[in-house]
Target: Small RNA 2'-O-methyltransferase
Amino acid sequence: MDKNFQEEFTQIIKFTPPLYKQRHQFVKDLVEKYKPKKVADLGCADCSLLRMLKYCSCIEVLAGLDICASVMKENMHMLSPLPVDYLQPSERSLTVTLHHGSVAHKDPCMLGFDLVTCIELIEHLEEPELKKFPEVVFGFMAPSIVVISTPNSEFNPLFPGVMLYRHPDHKFEWTQAQFQSWALETARCYDYSVEFTGVGQPPTGMEKAGFCTQIGVFVRKYPQTGESVQSEKPTEAVYKTVFKAVYPSLKDEKYLQNAVISEVIFTAQIIKHRLMSKHEEYDDDDPEGKSKFQPSMNCFSDYLGKLVVEKGMEPFVSGNEVYIPLATIFSFPKVNRLCGTFEKLCKLIAGKVTLSSDGSAVMFNIEDEDE
Ligand code: SAH
Model:
């Protein structure tokens, strides 16, 4: 590398967005591409990658592991569900767990993952730990994808002030050839393929230096199911769980029931309002009054009107009560999607919503405002 050219660049190297964000975005893109359900982040540090990944809707299980409990604990509260998660539970389930332990040790809680990320981890491992790492991650955990990032030492001369390593805790920093030879040998041993890429583009004219952060994406060549992994690899638990959050989800009957009841009452109220406003108009035209209301296309939204005409699911007023057929409510897309079947709707609202004596309609008193 030309020394003058090099010195010129050492003054101006600055990544936008910052390099750690580019690394995390790289993982997020990988998640969006492969849609893993279970993701483990090894060497998760302050949980910043986990915080980003919890918004990826394909992920149902998210785990972090670090040898330093205090760094994980600093921000782990940010992995807890927010009030909005309880107000509007998501359709997917999500469990986030943090473990305290070393990647040099096997623990059954790390089995069954689809994607394992090791972002800027390996260069922190002592030699004996680095030796055990491939057997733990590729041999024991054996996820379908592993992503490993590590500094590219060939880029270091472009950084002002980097004498030996970029961080005092780094035990080594590899050239591209060193990383690739380690990764290819690991992939060969454990039957994975590996492709190399990186983030942090070198400046024009310095392409030979390579990416500032080098990345290997390993893909398992053989199929394996979560169950067979669990049963074939009994081992004792050695990690300590330091955090666990189970997010409210509509997969949980309790949250589904609340959501369905709210949606049924909301839908029925809207239908009642439209019905009653038409009823009042009708009464004005007919001062003698009629106890029975005949709905017409004009008194509902197009959608409700269609239901009434095509399927005969008419809301009606009788005496002081308004009746909204459950079949009409079930036809509304959101209720339909939440319940799946009419039987499920009936089961979820039983005893929670006032129904007509035959159970076929939601019943409101005309006088009652928005119960
Ligand atoms: N992955 C983080 C940063 C990692 S820094 C990010 O993307 O920003 C490296 C982390 O690895 C540190 O938090 C350190 O405590 C952890 N670590 C070091 N040795 C470890 C080991 N043997 N097992 C698990 N974690 C380890």
Observations:
- The chain has two domains: 19-247, 253-280+300-365.
- DSSP finds 13 helices and eleven strands in the chain.
